[in-house]
Amino acid sequence: METRVTKMLGIEHPIIQGGMAWVAEHNLAAAVSAAGGLGLIGGANAPGQVVREEIRKAKELTDKPFGVNVMLMSPYADDVAKVVVEEGIKVVTTGAGNPEKYMELWKSAGIKVIPVVASVALAKRMEKYGADAVVAEGCESGGHIGEATTMTLVPQVKDAVSIPVIAAGGIGDGRGIAASFMLGAEAVQIGTRFVVSKESIVHENYKQRIIKAKDIDTAVTGRSHGHPIRGLRNKMTREYLKMEQEGKSFEELEYLTLGSLRRAVQEGDIQEGTVMAGQIAGMISQEQTCKEMIDEMMAQAEALLKQ
Ligand code: TUI
Q1: Which residue is closest in CA terms to ligand 1's atom 4?
Q2: Which of 5, 7, 35, 40 is nearest to 21 (CA)?
Q3: How far is the C-alpha of 116 from the C-alpha of 14, rounded, in Å?
Q4: I need a labelling partner for 209 at 20 to 30 A (CA). Which of 83, 163, 175, 282 fits?
């Protein structure tokens, strides 16, 4: 399936891996890229030097192109923005904010810039500032989310911009890819399914929690202070939601989740840790290699789109 996105990024399949905090490290990024998609290293809250080392390790694992996601709420975002230029990264996606202030730096370095947006307004603004494409991410996604669903956001963003649109949020198989194309997308970004890939370094407890998840097992915490996060329900989300109802302050709530994603991903604490995952978790039933996942999804999508 050739689209403006596959041509722009020099990839075989129109599949981009989400730049997931703590999860999207060099092994996963390299595996997705080697399988013909675009792997991403998630900058998350990591210092520039850590991201630089991840980039170098991914380069050792694959000759295929891969990108970096710059998480704009990170205290190290400025630092990571420079590292991607110094390391010769060709594709940058951004999340959780507006990347305007880095556009000139990245564009002049010849980097393809693909902001993740959750609204038409930001998509239009990004196009004006020279973005090469946008990821329109619906609130079915795991992690930090916006308000609109993928079904409503993707066609509205498509109508508002001329640059290619990449759909994200709730996509985990070939049906989701085919549906995204019907909505006007020219590629998809997939996160949750890749979390349970064989190459993913997340703790086995985390993978099994996703595999066992049912359709309505996610919860959104943090709506009260404007930073909603979707993850699988557990002791932590129950406590968090209770404290939000009681009107607890942002600081008290933050304290509950300090280091909680790392604890879930690395230590497998899926009860008190944060198990970020999208609503598609209920459909994910097995651990496979990234190549198996991509080949299976593409065969299904191509068959559907030919009908
Ligand atoms: O960024 C994500 N997903 C994420 S980032 C993350 S790490 C984190 N940890 C704790 C707190 C916050 C983040 C986990 N998951 N997805 C892309 C995304 N971007 N979704 C929504 C947005 C977004 C929302 C509002 C982008 C821009 C925006 O407004 C920017 C503006 O200034 O208008």
Answers
A1: 144
A2: 40
A3: 16
A4: 175
Regarding whether 294 and 158 lie in a shared domain, the answer is yes
Supply the pTM of this predicted model. Answer: 0.98
User: How many angstroms separate the alpha carbon of residue 304 from the centre of ligand 1?
Assistant: 32
The kind and range of the H/E element at 166 are: strand 165-168
The string of pLDDT tens digits covering residues 193-213 is 999 999 999 999 999 999 999
- Which of 271, 284, 275 is closest to 215 using CA atoms? 284
pLDDT tens sequence across 64-117: 999 999 999 999 999 999 999 999 999 999 999 999 999 999 999 999 999 999
CB of residue 24 inside a 6 A radius of ligand 1: no
Give the whole-angstrom CA distance, residue 57 versus residue 54. Answer: 5
Pocket mutation for ligand 1, best pick of 41, 144, 220 (most atoms within 8 Å of C-beta) = 144
Distance 169 CA to ligand 1 centre (A): 13
Q: Which residue has the tokens 């086995």?
A: 204
How confident is the model at residue 283, as a pLDDT? 98
42 in contact with ligand 1, CB cutoff 6 A: no
Whole-number average pLDDT of the chain: 98
Is the distance from the beta carbon of residue 153 to the nearest atom of ligand 1 less than 6 Å?
Answer: no
The domain of 193 spans 4-199+289-306
71 lines ligand 1 (CB under 6 A): yes
Token digits for 278? 């999208």
Overall average pLDDT of the 245-272 stretch: 95
Mean pLDDT of 117-141: 98
Whether residue 106 sits in one domain with residue 32: yes
